[in-house]
Amino acid sequence: MSVVDLLVTIIVVTILVTIALGVVTYVAYKLRLARRPAAETEGASETRYFEAHEPPQPDDAAESEATAEGEPHAS
Fold this sequence. Notes:
By secondary structure, this protein is an all-alpha fold. The chain contains two helices and no strands. It has helices spanning 3-35, 60-68. The N and C termini lie far apart (84 Å).
């Protein structure tokens, strides 16, 4: 067996293994998609990992002081 025949054999085997791995990966991906549970129907305002944090509202006394001092009212 010459060097050229050896290189051709290595290249052909490499190509065939690459194609086989691609097919196996695609089948595994499709099986994974089939096992995925259906999306839960949660409210659109709810998030999966985080909770919205609303900042505390200023009380009426602090709000009236701010407007009395000429500061703009923050809404």
